[in-house]
Input
Amino acid sequence: MAVECFDVMLSTNSYGNENSWSLGSCTSSQAYTANSFFSQQCCVSPGDHTLTCRDSYGDGWHGGFIEIGGKRYCEDFTSGGEQTTIISTGEHLYVGYC
Output
């Protein structure tokens, strides 16, 4: 089965150390810091996957966001410990096959 690989970009603001995420079988692979940018490659099978943005303190991402394929997600995650979105992988996310 083909696997689609693409970059997941994370931008943090205040309290970036509270942020983590998962998308299908991909998970955040590092500890984040405040006011920084991070990139990680993610490879998943084609189809629908749940993007979950988590905040360990439970007060959202303070303006931080994830960018995948040029689209921002979790930018409106302003309260609570978790926000989910369904993302369909497809041609707009394609970078290469793993």
User: Anything to note?
Assistant: The two ends are 10 Å apart (CA to CA). Confidence is low (pLDDT under 50) at residues 94-98.
